[in-house]
Amino acid sequence: MPFTLNVPDFSVHPAESVLLLGESGSGKSTLLSLICGTIMPSEGVVQVAGNDLSKLSASLLDQFRVEKIGIIFQQFNLLPFGSVLDNILLPLSFAPERRARVLKPKEAARKLCTDLGLPDNLLNMRASTLSVGQQQRVAVARAMIGEPSLLVADEPTSALDESTQITFLDLLFTQSQNNNTSLLMVSHDERLSKYFDRVVRMTEIAGFGKATI
Amino acid sequence: MILRLALGSLIARATTVGMTILAIALSVALFLGVEKVRTGAKASFADTISGTDLIVGARSGSVQLLLYSVFRIGNATNNLTWSSYQDVASRPEIAWIVPISLGDSHKQFRVMGTTPEFFNRYKYRSGQSIEFADGKNMSDLFDTVIGADVAATLNYHVGDPIVVAHGLASFTEHKDQPFKISGILNKTGTPVDRTVIVGLRAIEAIHVDWQEGAQVQGQTTPIDVIRKMKLQPKAVTAALVGIENRLQVFGLQRAINKYNKEPLLAILPGVALQELWQIIGIAEVALIGVSAMVVITALIGMMAMIFSSLNERRREMAIFRAMGARPRVILGMLILEAAVIATIGAILGLALMYLGVYIAQPIIDAEFGLWLPSKAPTLNEFLVLAAVIIASIIASVLPALRAYRLSLADGMLVRI
After folding, report:
1. Where are the domains of chain B?
2. B 312-341 residues with CB < 8 A to A
């Protein structure tokens, strides 16, 4: 059923970590899609790192998105048949700027893994052989490689148990602070609020209704 | 790396991809096999008679003369009188001439009267001679040599007696003059296999008591008397001719066709064989059509496989999209996937076909007298492979476009 989402004003500052709270069906994912430029607003502007997304052509947008934004999904983040290393390096093959920031991709991937507490020998294993927690950490490494300006995480902890959630969030924060990356995380879990610079509720920023078609 | 991931995706779906490759391989093997049998049959057909420069008979059509003189199909409308035969035989261009006389039968097989020289002169498959599997050439008046199919079908052995029937599908037999099998020939894949060969004089000998196609009532000449007779034929059905100098072949052909005492016809066997092949070649088109349809079916199977894989791969495509892959990269990956599947299938099919030919070659040669050459792949076969690969790429465009549209619509936030 078609619906409308109205977001009058919402922004994330450089190096800020923001938790976007909302029930399922509250328009969180739609907002993320707008920020990532996979859908376009019917009115208004979406700016990422100072660029108006609506001014970019479709193929430039595809490239721009991967240059500026690292993305972590809820689960099934990795290509199961690829090696861990291939998965981490994947965004670099479509983003020349990010690629240029990484001098030695393999070394960078290995360092990220070490920082994220993944053993070295994991790099050449198939992603499908990893545990869910390890897969999520590989996803963080992939999102962080080449230092994008914004990290978008769509309920990344929902597949993890509580103790792993805390460790995972710690790693996420350490990484984004090291790289001066803004972090926008979407969740419905109120308990995560205390770890973030700012907490925004969907109900505070967005009007939501059914379209009259 | 993208290539490696695309291959990894294929390997991850090894079972379905493997079955698709197998289907394409089998269909390609079938198509190439049919093609092989077709060219083999055509070559075997063209090799039915070789080494003979001209076939001479009474005037009719060239295909008709070929059919009754070489293939023993149909009947001669007229015979070649013995004096005409002698006139042709005495011409200076002629190196050898072998008369053949048809008209009688034994069970379902034709009886052919000829001279012992026939066995040296009749060649098939580029100059191969007829060989005896058992026994030897005719020496006695009532000796006969039978083809491999005759011996196999009727379970005959050297030394067995046989009785020749008058005419074709007739109940009157030449019981008084039984023949003895002196030799059995090797399988040749030519009509010789289905022929009972007797001496030209023997044909006269069994017809001593016959006039105008019917047995003279109460007249039975004893065999001793027949043996002492001259047994000069009054006519023969046709003659195989070899000439001294191949340059003279057209001159001799013209001379025979203009022979004024009797209407005669001389044909070049190769040309007549080609004319005949054009008539029966329609079957080969049908054969190609059917096997082409099998290949198309396999390609549609591949298309269906890619289509059905799209749903389970929406997550994979979403990840690629989120990592910056443009929809056209997704499109390219799917087309590449089809090309890889088809290429492996096509090469596997070629290998399968050659393995099959290698194994079946001696069996088919012995059973059907059909020789399948197992030489290196021809340009034609490579063109077939290329066509299969191109067709698979075309077939994959449809599912690839669907993936393109799906990945545009899904973006990168798919939850499955």
Report:
1. 2-45+282-410, 54-267
2. 315-316, 319-329
* Residues B190, B195, B200, B202, Cα dihedral to 10°: 160
Q: Taking residues B143-163, report their average pLDDT.
A: 92
- Give ∠ CA A35-A36-A38 in degrees, rounded to 5: 110
The answer to whether B173 and B164 have CB atoms below 8 angstroms apart is: yes
**Residue among B17, B323, B406 with most chain A CBs within 10 A, to mutate:** B323
**DSSP state letters, A23-80:** -TTSSHHHHHHHHHTSS--SSS--EETTEEGGGS-HHHHHHHHHHHEEEE-SS--S-T
Tokens of A200: 């925004």
Could you say which DSSP state residue B99 is in? E
**Confidence (pLDDT) at A15:** 86
Angle ∠(B341,B344,B350) on CA atoms, nearest 5: 135
pLDDT at B413: 57
Please, what is the average pLDDT of chain A?
A: 85
Burial of B181 (0-12, 13-18, 19+ CB in 10 A): buried
Contacts of B323 in chain A (CB under 8 A): 66, 71, 90-91, 93-94, 142
Burial class, B238, CB count within 10 angstroms (exposed 0-12 / middle 13-18 / buried 19+): buried
Give residue B416's pLDDT band: very low, low, confident or very high (50, 70, 90). very low
Token digits of residue B159: 């030394």
Per-residue pLDDT at A2: 62
Is there a contact between B324 and A79 if contact means CB atoms under 8 Å apart? no
pLDDT of the residue at B411: 61
Q: What are B330-374's pLDDT values in tens digits?
A: 888 889 989 999 999 999 999 999 999 888 888 887 777 677 777
Q: Which domains does chain A have, with CATH numbers?
A: 3-210 (3.40.50.300)
